[in-house]
Amino acid sequence: MPGGTDQTLRPFLWRAANLYPDKEIVSRTHEGIERYTYSEYDDRTAQLANALEAHGIEEGDRVATFCWNHHRHFETYFAVPTIGAQLHTINPLLPDEHIQYIVDNADDQLIFVDDSLAPKLAQAAADAPEFEGVDFVVMSSTETETLDATPYEEFVEGHSTEYDWPILDEDQPAGMCYTSGTTGNPKGVEYTHKMLWSHTMATLTPQGIPMADEDVVMPVVPMFHVNAWGMPFTATAAGAKHVYPGPSPDPEDIVHLIEEEGVTISAGVPTVWLGLMDYAEDNDVDLSTLDTVIVGGSAAPESMIRWFDDRDVELLHAWGMTEMSPLGSVSQLKGGLQDADYETQLKHRKKQGLTVPGIEFKVIDENDEEIAWDGEEFGELWVRGPWVTKEYFMRPEANEEDFEDGWLKTGDVVTVDEEGYIQIVDRAKDVIKSGGEWISSVELENAIMAHDDVAEAAVVGVPHEKWQERPVAFVVAGEDADTDTLDEEIMDLLREDYPKWWLPDAIEYIDEVPKTATGKFSKKDIREEYTDGSIVEGSVPEEAAPDDD
Ligand code: AMP
Fold first, then answer.
1. Whether residue 537 has pLDDT greater than 50
2. Residue 438: active-site member
3. Res 336 pLDDT > 70
4. Which CATH code, of 3.30.559.10, 3.50.50.60, 3.40.50.12780, 3.40.1190.20, is assigned to 1-189?
């Protein structure tokens, strides 16, 4: 046994509960808005720890959650790891087979599930041998109809609010999350206490996503997706007020919580903020308390950064991965750029940013050479650092492919500018190769989405006899769009910034861009659903062809 707490999670909560006992944790639930203090949270965490122990959960066991963002889910965040067990957050948007696979692979003993998600879990568990011996607790005070589950309040009731917290080894696994690949089963990533601790400390630096005790922090990013980007831990370490937006919050719920609770920092994927922007156009919205919005998971469009700037809210563009706990980089301005003009600053701010302290990286091109930091050359981003996983859970074949000499090969294709700002130009598998040259599908998508009448756009490469691949754009038009003229307007927009051979061969209108379980555009599904392996007949003028350039 070590002689004291090393880099483990318990001290973060100990400090918050003792220095900020009256600070609030607010949660939107099926049962309405609930609020209590850090002091009460600490007591309930101890009760849950005792309840878990009484249920037979021991050090090293895995306890899973199947939940949205709320206070009970947050209670599992500290209770499970700080007794030495491991919190496995399951993404409820995964297909049933994947859920069965990961429950079996992780060997989960107990699953906490939301009332509204119980039917989905019941469906995945029905006749599935993977679920044998797994118990359920439903996150409410009453029973649920679809699953044989103990209500959470009954589970913790009567247990002591004192717990003799063990001194844990910092290498003890604390968390776990699965990442979905394009093919095959999801891959598990284990987070040790030390990884989560170092991730928290790096996030809190001025180069990361700094938070103070007077902040009001609302993670909209789901707690089943890489621990809501670690925010429940960072907000606790900072002693900030927490706000959890509950089951499937819509823009109105999010705005309401910002206004009522005085949210200062919030985080989510671009679609969350696009929804809010849309809502704000038609409704009276007060964002005056909001200082910072963190956007990650997919690229933040430039128009979004400008929109928030106009309302005096700083948009920080962050990049990360499940394998990185998840934070890798943030688009913080370097000191030397603070006095630069707005457009120069924006040029850097719209990139994925500077790696946070503790992360090392290199970028390897097709010839296994490191690229120049000139904002032009590109290659695959490799990273390493204390909170970057060194392997997948029980997946030796994936380890061989994705790790080399302690580096994680991210699969992201990037440029790095003279200042060290990283820009993701694509996923390695989504880069479009036309006539031996590369076209960034991500850049085209962002440029198309900058059009006011475009709600969403995804660009994929389709096979072409002469050019190997050509880009085709799949566009979701805005409500008031006139699709007769939109094609030409989009092409005009693209012509301003891109060579002719980058322009899509076709623009196809679709109702919705298919998404992965983590809300990213699913290029695989787009290809499967909308292309048959040949060029899509589109409405775009001939001149888009690369040969007339
Ligand atoms: P996940 O493990 O599901 O969080 O997915 C990680 C991947 O999401 C990264 O490897 C990137 O391809 C993508 N990603 C994350 N953040 C960003 C961002 N800010 N801009 C563009 N892509 C991003």
1. no
2. yes
3. yes
4. 3.40.50.12780
